[in-house]
Each structure stands twice: as C-alpha cells, then as structure tokens.
Design a protein that fits this description.
3 helices, single chain, 6 strands, three-stranded antiparallel beta sheet, alpha+beta
Amino acid sequence: MDLYTGFDLVPRLPESIEDQKSWECFIQAVKEHYQNDDLVEAKQNCITVKVDRGLVLPFEGHELLRFCSEISVRHAEGVENHLNTITRIAEKHFGSRANVYDLRKSFEQPGEPNASAGIDSDMPKNHSQTVKDSEIFSIEQVPGK
C-alpha cells in the first residue's frame, strides 16, 4: 500500500523580504537538524533529501510548491521519518500556513463528511447539485430599455 504525505504553504510565500527571512530561518533549522545526516544534502540552490528524489527544499521560499512523497510500505521508514521531521519544523516556523496532509489518514480513517458534499435537507428534490447556491449575478430591469 502506498500513501501520499507532506505539506505545502497556503498561501504561497511571496517574494517579500519578511517572508524570505522566515524561509531562511526554516532552511537553517533544517540544515542544523540534519547537519550529520548523509541523506540530507545542502546544494547550491536547495536542500535535497536523498531518500526520495522528489524531496527538495528550494532556498527561495516562493519557489516551493509542495514538499511531499509517495511512500511505499517497504521504503516508508526512512522517507516518512524525514518527511515528518521537516514537516514539524515547517509547522513550527509557519504555523497554520503549513498545510499538512497525509492521504493514508484521509482514506483509512472515517471522518465527518464535508458539508458541501452532503445533500442539504432544505434543498428541493429537483435542485441541481452542480450549481452553487450563491448568486454569481442577478438580472435587473433597466429603466428606459
């Protein structure tokens, strides 16, 4: 069984000086944590985690789209440990902006249904579920037309 886990930053980091300083502190914390780990390498423009070719942290925070991996059970320990640790460091530095996800949990654990996914009991039977209930526009009479 495979699982997909990681984090992204929501909203994405802009190129502002303040956000870049926050990102630099995060990168420095990752470097310090893994300074004696041969599986984590600081390159010229990024940090790579060698347990998975997709685990890359760019030195420019606005370049991060997603830090994640698909983890197969037979390789999970090394990848998952690095992912979890770096994700915790991101949560510490960015708080709720670090959008953490673990699709194994999403699919294997029952949870509350999404309110928009259920059928509202107040809705008429012939109401289309594909159309949003909020009005996008309105039709008005224009005097003289």
